[in-house]
């Protein structure tokens, strides 16, 4: 392996390194938390608007010790993963069918696109009536919401596979399974994963929103209950948990995408 | 080509017709189905009843105010923030992923915090909508500026263009298409956010009205109101998308005619 010379090392700015990025982000978070701690201790902002970071940290600790935090995260995670699984299966299959049939694609993709940007989440009372105030209602609602971007991006991703790759697969006499796993999926992976990542975002929005509005359980419900108890550190603690869960899931999708492309 | 276009419309209308027929028959035949999915004919007659209510247009007006003000504030802040992080490589590498993670958080969970600051009036829903619109607009703007070919700026500089000229005649047109797309997405999420916030805390607006009908077990009226929302959202999105296409096409054509001259 070639060791970079001092000149080469100097030519790569420190701002390009991963460690710089991590340090910079941690520094920003610490700086913001520090500023908020000072602002709240000096009472420059009302306590019902911003909670002290130390109170938030202490509330997180309490939640973890009592098991409430893990229970809420667990409930939300189960709903998110179940909805993601269902939405991926339905969305990828439907996207594949639309790609295979040009007529269906031209006829139905504009409708799917239009529904994509419609406020489907408003239909949550229908799910509640059909499935009761249960996790099933949340999962069904989130699945319906997230399937649409997955369908759209799957159809687009498959349509954009270079023809030359398909011709190479023909020349190499690949079976359908080999064609799918060795040519189509790796080639379409970036756009497929964009659709799945968008699906994850929509699922998080749908799951946590319905939990918040209907208080069935999970992180959304804990946020609403903390707000009703005027427990602002609790509100922020559970909001942070939502942020971390969202970041974790999106990173997971990134990691799967990189693995598929190798 | 023409027969292809006809076939597309036949399939499209056929699928829509099938869904509506299944709904009409299913809602009518099964009692429990009728409570959850009232027949289309009932929803349509409920819709006629809903639009004749004295509060219908005031609900629309309130929702439109929330969406418009929320979108304008959120997208203005998003454009500024996106420009800052798109223009600096370091700021982009540090902040863009954090912005992306934050964008995945459902903004509805910040409603208790917004409530304590903005109160329970229109400002709350507008604030919620602006928070939602901010993220796609800032991310889209940052991407547009970051991916603008640097050669454009170099050519403008070589030609002696001033900073202002470079901005208005080179940079802005180059990124306008992508930014308009980001604004369209911001508008779509502002619409959903305002309506969702109305279902939680409101005294008027289309989202609130739909929940009122649901709580009073007026299911056909609930669907009629939601149908109004869906149709309006679709019309707005399609209109904005067409405007973007017209603008982008006009810009490309004027670009071609300028270089031809």
Describe the structure.
The complex is a heterodimer of chains A (262) and B (261). Chain A is 82% helix and 0% strand. Chain A has helices spanning 6-11, 18-41, 53-66, 68-100, 102-116, 124-131, 135-159, 163-171, 176-214, 218-228, 232-261. Chain A starts with 5 loop residues before the first helix and ends with a helix. The longest helix of chain B has 42 residues, at 219-260. The chains are: A mainly alpha (262), B mainly alpha (261). At the A-B interface, helix 2, helix 5, helix 6, helix 9 and helix 10 of A face helix 1, helix 5, helix 6, helix 9 and helix 10 of B.
**Main sheet attributes: strand count, strand direction, barrel closure of chain A:** none
Instruction: Compute the number of helices of chain A.
Output: 11
Number of strands of chain B: 0
Q: What is the terminal-to-terminal distance of chain A?
A: 21 Å
Q: What is the element string of chain B, with H for helices and E for strands?
A: HHHHHHHHHHH
Record the SSE blueprint:
The complex is a heterodimer of chains A (262) and B (261).
Chain A: H1 6-11, H2 18-41, H3 53-66, H4 68-100, H5 102-116, H6 124-131, H7 135-159, H8 163-171, H9 176-214, H10 218-228, H11 232-261
Helix pairs in contact in A: 3-11, 4-5, 4-7, 4-9, 4-10, 5-7, 6-7, 7-9, 9-10, 9-11, 10-11
Chain B: H1 2-29, H2 31-36, H3 40-51, H4 56-87, H5 89-103, H6 111-118, H7 122-146, H8 150-158, H9 163-200, H10 206-215, H11 219-260
